[in-house]
Amino acid sequence: MIHSMTGFASDKGEFAGYSWGWELRSVNGKGMDIRLRVPDWIPGLEAALRAILTQSVTRGNVSLSLRIQRTDDAGALALNAANLKALLQVMKQIDSAARDQGVTLAASRASDLLGVRGVLDTVSDKDDTVALLARLKQDFPPLIKAFLDMRRTEGEALGDVLNQQLDRIEQLTEQADLLARARTDAMADTLRSNLARVMENVDGADPDRVAQELALIAVKADVTEEIDRLAAHVRAARDLLKQGGAVGRKLDFLMQEFNREANTLCSKSQSVDLTSVGLELKAVIDQMREQVQNVE
Question: What is the DSSP letter of 159?
Answer without folding.
Answer: H
